[in-house]
Amino acid sequence: MDSLITAAARALAAGDPLGALKRVALRDDAPGLALRGLAMAQLGDLVRAKALLRSAARAFGPKEAVARARCVVAEAEIALVSRDLGWPAKALDAARATLEEHGDRVNAAHARYLTVRRLLLVGRIEEAERTLAELDPAPFPPALRTAHELVVAGIAMRRLRTKAARDALTRAERAARHARIPALTAEVESAFLVLKTPAARLIASGEERLLLLEEVEALLASKAFVVDACRHVVRDESKVVSLAKRPVLFALARALGEAWPGDVPRDTLVARAFRSKVADESHRARLRVEIGRLRTVLRTLADVSATKRGFALAPRRAREVVVLARPVEEKHAAVLAFLADGESWSSSALALALGTSQRTVQRALDSLAATGKVQSFGRARTRRWMTPPVPGFTTTLLLPAPLPIDYD
């Protein structure tokens, strides 16, 4: 390993891409191309970074399997940051296996963390937890320990375990200080903000207020009867009933929950459930059928009783009925929620994360773009959607063999 490559690798490990480029900007050999690619990635030029890493992978000889594997892992990180969720996961698994076989534990672990982060983005939390359980962060350098704790915190937040998430972020903050990489510290600070940002809206007895994540956790652990509009379920302290595939029944349940302890007029229920401005006899007949179905699915949780002007909800065990809704509710809110992370997304990646068709996502994006809420750049397959500009990111991947200083 020559001195320029070593110096450039150290600069990248310290989060100094410009310092790395000063040393290898004119290098066209395989290690130089790879380090240039990583530097461009840290500077945010992801397209150029991907091209350089692919050139480096081709330039490494057949006997340099580890170096090629590191290029694949770096490209996978770029794909993750640019939200190219369709990037072949098998290629990353093969690269990780090669790194493990040759004893490169640090970069092999980094590959696993990329896999976990992708699983979290597409909502496969159980699989993410199983993959994370295979890793012990203790022997890793500070930057990788930070990545580990950020993933732990991400899983805990999605599981509504706010204490575990806060503890993980505290450990991540400590590791990031030891790593001395500003971008990594900023990522931890950004993650902390999630715990201080309203995560939901509580509607009860005609009043509304915003809830933090820990307040949502406390509410769901309470004895209240909750109509959860974030997950489309109805629950009390002992049972959960999913209405995710029955939107009419959920709309009725939510209307009744918002009005509790009062009742809801039949015409209002028709408007909420069937989106009809005028309630004729056919709508009222259909309402009676749907109310009967709602009584059936909620029979262990609550009764839906008829009143002179409509219907009212009567929980069997709970003394309080509340509705839990998203902080902001508007058309295509789910798409905006993913774009709010500040990264650029392709429509195919959004479709994968949302579990819907790409065409449906594209229509939503076109509608949001028409109102100025999102913007796009690129064309055809390279087209990406975002709200703020794409930030740079830090990579802990090093193409040369790990240096002794990395373990301090």
Record field, number of beta strands: 11
Oligomer class: single chain
SS content category: alpha+beta
The first-to-last residue Cα distance is: 21 Å
> What is the number of helices?
18
User: What topology, given as strand order, has the largest sheet?
Assistant: 2-1-9-3-4-5
The count of domains is 3
Rough outline: elongated
Structure, described:
The protein is of the alpha+beta class. The chain folds into 3 domains: 3-196 and 397-407, Alpha Horseshoe (Serine Threonine Protein Phosphatase 5, Tetratricopeptide repeat); 201-325, Arc Repressor Mutant, subunit A (Orthogonal Bundle), CATH 1.10.10.10; 333-386, Orthogonal Bundle (Arc Repressor Mutant, subunit A). It is built from 18 helices and 11 strands. It has helices spanning 3-13, 17-24, 30-42, 46-59, 65-81, 89-101, 105-121, 125-133, 142-158, 162-179, 182-196, 213-220, 247-259, 266-274, 281-297, 333-339, 347-354, 358-370, and strands at 200-204, 207-211, 225-228, 233-235, 240-242, 263-265, 302-306, 310-315, 321-325, 375-377, 384-386. The strands form 3 sheets. A 6-stranded mixed β-sheet has the order 2-1-9-3-4-5. The protein has a 3-stranded antiparallel β-sheet with strand order 6-8-7. Strands 10-11 form a two-stranded antiparallel ribbon. A hairpin with a 2-residue loop joins strand 1 (200-204) and strand 2. Helix 1 runs antiparallel to helix 2 (17-24), helix 8 (125-133) packs antiparallel against helix 9 (142-158) and helix 17 crosses helix 18 (358-370). The longest helix has 18 residues, at 162-179.
